[in-house]
Structure formats: C-alpha cells, structure tokens
Write a structure and sequence with these properties.
alpha/beta, 3-stranded mixed beta sheet
Length: about 280
C-alpha cells in the first residue's frame, strides 16, 4: 500500500473513532487536530481531501437524523438503479468489481476442498480481515468493534470445512483495490441461493443512497420475505463491497450491522460526504 494513502487511512480511522465515541455532536476542529497531533489547518486539509467535506460537515453526516434524510431524499428503488446500469458489473466509485458465485452444491459442502487465504489490512474503518480463494475475495470484515479474534472466528465458521492459510500477499492487489476503492477487484461469493439473490440486489444500490429491507424483498420477487432478507443482509460475508450498510429500516433507523453500528455510521457518512462533494463539484 502506498505510504501516503496508508497514513491517510490511519488519520481517518482515528478521527472517525474519536468523533463516533464523543457525546459532543460537534467536536471543535482544534480538539480533533490536537488528537491527531496536527495543526488545525493541516488536519482540515487532510480530512477534506480524503472525505470531500470538512470535519464539521462530516460529523453532521454521522447523526441518525442524516440516515433518515437519506431515506427521504436519496431513497432509490433497486429496480430503478438496475435499469440505469448501477449494478455489480459497473463502477463503484473508482472500483471495477467482478463477481462469481459458488454453486449450491459446493456451498452445501461448507467449503470442503476450498483453500482460503487470509490477511489483515488497514482500512478507513479500522482493521480489515480479508479472505479469498484463487478466484476472488470471499470475506471482508471489520474488527474495530468486535476485535480481531472474534472477527477471525466469525468468518472462519462460515466455511468450517475449508483449509485456511495466512497469506496476505495472495490477496494484496484485490484487498488494496477494495479498501482504496480504486482499481479492479474480484469477488468469489459463497452462500445459499437466497442469500446470493439478496447480496446481488445490494450491489444495485448506488453509493450515497439507501434502501429498505422491504424494497430488497420486492426486488428479488419475494415481497413477504422481509425478515429473511434482513437475515441474509446480516449474513453478508463481504462488508463494504456488498453494501449491506446501505439497507435501513423502513422508519429510517439504522437497524443492526454485523460489524458494529459505529462502522455502519462511518460508512454511510463517508459515502454521503463523497456524493455531496461530487454533486457540489458538478
């Protein structure tokens, strides 16, 4: 990973953690800059360059009422998104994503015969555990809330019969593209047929927009399966790239998130900030 980008990741990760843990809904710029051991002007430049908006504006995006406004103003039906080409085969930010799914028979064997490589990488949302086969990433998890040991156990138990080997170099190109949102990465999705339909639907939600579990159920042709959709969203093994963080409750509440609500808030805030910055530039 490029040292400058890695440095920015670390600054962002620490700043987001401080903002999210604070009871103050609007931390002063000087306070945040001091925590980063940077001057206010330099921190403002680094933060704004990476996120696209100021720290003050970013804090506004982290609030729950912003999630509600997203649902009101940026809600998009999956059918519409798909119709205009916003799907897994298109651009996600600057990332080109290709994916293929394991057959139902292979899935039923719980990963038997699979060799899965794994490694830890830095991300804007804390330590990221990446797992993958020779065909692509099959797991992407964030350990900021649960811790590294629990996160490792969580992913490994999904494919209990697989052979696991630590080899970050085998995943580095895909992982850095995924976490840096630039370049090309591949996914090798391992799930039950219903789960795969839900995860594919999630791919059609544009960045900076959100949907509801009910709309996902409608999109996959099973409108009564809202609860099952929620379960499948929660079982998504590839966070961030399969954007389960963009699914909200009908009320606009964030709902749950497998890797922790602070991570979900940070992801939505990051995407919303980038979307607004792009709109403003246009």
């Amino acid at each position: 990973m490029d040292p400058t980008q890695s440095y920015h990741y670390q600054v962002m990760r620490r700043a987001i953690a401080i903002i999210d843990a604070s009871d103050d809904p609007s931390l002063p710029l000087a306070t945040l800059a001091a925590e980063m051991q940077m001057s206010p002007a330099h921190f403002q430049r680094v933060f704004s360059a990476w996120v696209g908006v100021s720290p003050k504006r970013y804090q506004q995006y982290l609030r729950l009422d912003h999630a509600r406004s997203l649902l009101r103003d940026r809600f998009t039906t999956l059918e519409t998104a798909h119709a205009i080409g916003l799907s897994g085969s298109g651009r996600l930010h600057d990332l080109f994503l290709r994916w293929e799914a394991m057959s139902p028979g292979d899935y039923a064997r719980a990963g038997a015969g699979l060799r899965i490589f794994w490694g830890w990488f830095d991300s804007a949302f804390g330590p990221a555990l990446v797992m993958g086969t020779d065909r692509g990433i099959c797991g992407l998890a964030f350990a900021a809330e649960a811790g590294e040991a629990a996160t490792m156990h969580d992913l490994r138990r999904r494919w209990p019969q697989a052979e696991f080997a630590e080899n970050p170099d085998a995943l580095r190109v895909w992982a850095e593209a995924a976490l840096g949102m630039k370049g090309e990465t591949r996914l090798h999705m391992i799930g039950a047929p219903f789960q795969l339909k839900v995860w594919e639907a999630l791919l059609t939600i544009p960045s900076g927009h959100v949907t509801t579990y009910g709309e996902i159920a409608q999109a996959i042709g099973n409108p009564k399966a809202v609860r099952a959709v929620g379960t499948a969203v929660g079982r998504n093994p590839v966070g961030w790239l399969i954007p389960c963080h963009r699914a909200l409750r009908k009320s606009g509440a964030l709902g749950g998130y497998h890797w922790g609500l602070p991570v979900k808030r940070a992801m939505l805030a990051w995407e919303s900030a980038r979307a607004d910055a792009t709109t403003g530039a246009e």
